[in-house]
What we know:
By secondary structure, the protein is of the alpha/beta class. Helices cover 22% and strands 19% of the residues. It is globular, with a radius of gyration of 21 Å.
Amino acid sequence: QAAGGPAWVLRELLSGGLMHPDVMSVNAGGIAGGGQGAPAVSGDETVLRPVTLPFSPTGGLRLLQGRLGRAVIKVSAVPEDRHIIEAPARVFDSQEALLAAFSAGEVQQDMVAVVRFQGPQANGMPELHKLTPPLAVLQNRGFKVALVTDGRMSGASGRVPAAIHVTPEALAGGPLAKVRDGDIVRVDAVAGTLDVLVDEAEWAARTPAPYNAPAATGFGRELFANFRRHAGGAEQGACTWM
């Protein structure tokens, strides 16, 4: 706040053409109104820098798109030699299944862990932060690892490359439902691609895997069944009223 606060950040982003000034917000006049009254210069450039002198030329998030859909990856903490991972897929239909395989020593290998059926329609898109520790252990052992999921992680991927919020989700006809163990998956945060290296004819002929849904009742699942049924994709905020 002493360096300039949110108003300073908004003003700098607006001046760089990186925000839409007319977007509605809590401020009168929209986003542009939030930048009013900001100091002319940063009070501390180790905290806030002007848009003309950023800490990094690009942000920490990248869009990935390809045969496996669209996803976002956080690369700000990922070493540059891990920005591209190409490895055989290990497919899991839940966070718990991957954790069990790790505990049993079944995933001592280079791999792209595909954790599917974790989107809004499947089970409400739960937080998958428990996946980071085992994947980080494998990475520290020298294996090339990455995560691809239609589930959610709230910035907890750390140093592990993680293509998250994949859309469309597996339950909504997304291509993750067609991935099989052993398929070569390429996560490329440099080129912005998310691909499976499978022959086109074979890929087109595959039948999507079925979703083995949890029990329809218990733990409040019956209360939210309608929300899941009508939820939009991750890119639409999983909204049920659009």
